[in-house]
Design goal:
globular, 400 residues, 15 strands, 2 domains, Aspartate Aminotransferase, domain 2, three-stranded mixed beta sheet, seven-stranded mixed beta sheet
């Protein structure tokens, strides 16, 4: 073994530890839910999960996965274009397209792969791709990859600054094509993209809109169809990417949805699609069941919205300063990174699991506890969480 290599890795880990940014793993011993069994901790109330609708352990969703395991086996043992496409993949993709309002959809083993596989496939030299400054890392990396492969031109506009977006598009009006990449919901802020205005800007500048709706699918809109439904523009977004690993069962997987010609092109040319095994049939089946469950139970979205509004109001009344918003992502601004991390650790001792984020994930002085609310939370859960956060905030000297 190369000892210098190992030493350099350990030095990097030691540096992270010294800065207080070394991530620690916590091991769950029960299904993802509002309350879980955590190894060495007993029962813990979860405020950091993407299980927005509580479908991770919904019996219909779980049983669908078990049924697929029996029908199709443990895995595909092949990529899609050889013999890895099962009938459940086709059924899932049809349901996803129907749900988000597009002609077609293509599933991937992760939402990261979906984003990565999309940009480099559709972009060519002479194109211009512009991205919101707070877009998810998967979007950023997908654009970097596309630039390296195709030599396309790229740009970044200030977060939700549509004047800056227009300026970037005007400066690149001679580009062969212009592509606007945005998140639907920005995960660290809980803010929503100004989608109607972005769509109008795209029309004015002959641009294509690509939106990652991972934190909005199953969350926003009256029936959970995402950011487009929230704004009443369902079916108007050119391309939507999203995840199956959050509200829709939480297992894994992602997808690209858009025109049928786009999905056919991805089948032929998208490298993560061509050279990775297909989504496991168990995951495809449980995700399909999650979509069908949500279509039959839109009240689950209503419960989520009510819970989020209740928690945001209660945490404000408790003396904290959460960012305003309409999503179940409720960032409580603490200020200093050390304080946010310390409060997160103190809350775990109180039986509350919530993650503290600081620089460089968020700007200096805006460290936060990012709370994520679920339809599975009861009002008693939320009241307990507020009391615990208030108690710990006082102990930490953050709340007076």
């Amino acid at each position: 073994m190369n000892t210098n290599f190992v030493s350099s890795l350990q030095s990097g880990l030691d540096d992270l530890a010294a800065k207080g940014t070394l991530k620690k793993l916590n091991y769950l011993a029960s299904p993802q839910a509002a309350r879980v069994q955590m190894e060495g901790r007993g029962e813990v109330l979860i405020l950091s999960s993407n299980n927005y609708l509580g479908l991770c352990n919904e019996p219909e969703v779980v049983e669908a996965g078990i049924g697929a395991l029996r029908q199709y086996g443990a895995g595909t043992a092949s990529v899609r274009f050889i013999c890895g496409t099962f009938t459940v993949h086709r059924e899932l993709e049809a349901a996803l397209a129907r749900f988000v309002g597009t002609q077609a959809a293509m599933s991937y083993v992760s939402a990261w792969n979906a984003n990565e596989g999309l940009t480099a496939t559709i972009v060519e030299e002479g194109d211009f791709v512009v991205s919101d400054a707070l877009n998810h890392a998967s979007i950023i990396d997908s654009i970097r990859l596309a630039k390296a492969i195709t030599k396309c031109t790229t740009g970044v506009y200030q977060h939700s600054d549509l004047d800056d977006l227009v300026a970037k598009l005007k400066a690149n009006q001679s580009a062969r094509r212009r592509i606007i990449w945005t998140d639907g919901v920005f995960s660290m802020e809980g803010s929503i993209a100004k989608l109607p205005q972005i769509l109008q800007i795209a029309k004015d500048h002959d641009a294509i809109v690509v939106m990652d709706d991972s934190h909005a699918t199953g969350v926003l809109g009256r029936t959970g169809r995402g950011t487009a439904e929230h704004f009443g523009v369902l079916g108007e977004v050119d391309v939507i990417t999203s995840t199956l690993g959050k509200a829709l069962g939480g297992a894994a997987g992602g997808f690209v949805a858009g025109p049928a010609a786009l999905c056919d092109t991805l089948t032929q040319r998208s490298r993560p699609q061509l050279f990775s095994n297909a989504l496991p049939p168990t995951v495809a089946a449980s995700s399909l069941a999650a979509v069908e469950f949500l279509e039959s139970h839109p009240e689950r979205v209503t419960t989520l919205r009510e819970n989020a509004n209740y928690f945001r109001a209660a945490i404000k009344e408790a003396g904290f300063n959460p960012l305003d918003g309409e999503t179940p992502i409720v960032p409580i601004i603490i200020g200093e990174t050390a304080d946010a991390i310390r409060m997160s650790e103190m809350l775990l001792a109180e039986g509350i699991f919530v993650t503290g984020f600081g620089f460089p994930v968020v700007p200096h002085g805006t460290a936060r506890l990012r709370c994520q609310i679920s339809a599975a939370h009861t009002r008693a859960d939320l009241d307990y969480a507020v009391r615990a956060i208030q108690k710990v905030g006082r102990k930490a000297g953050v709340l007076r």
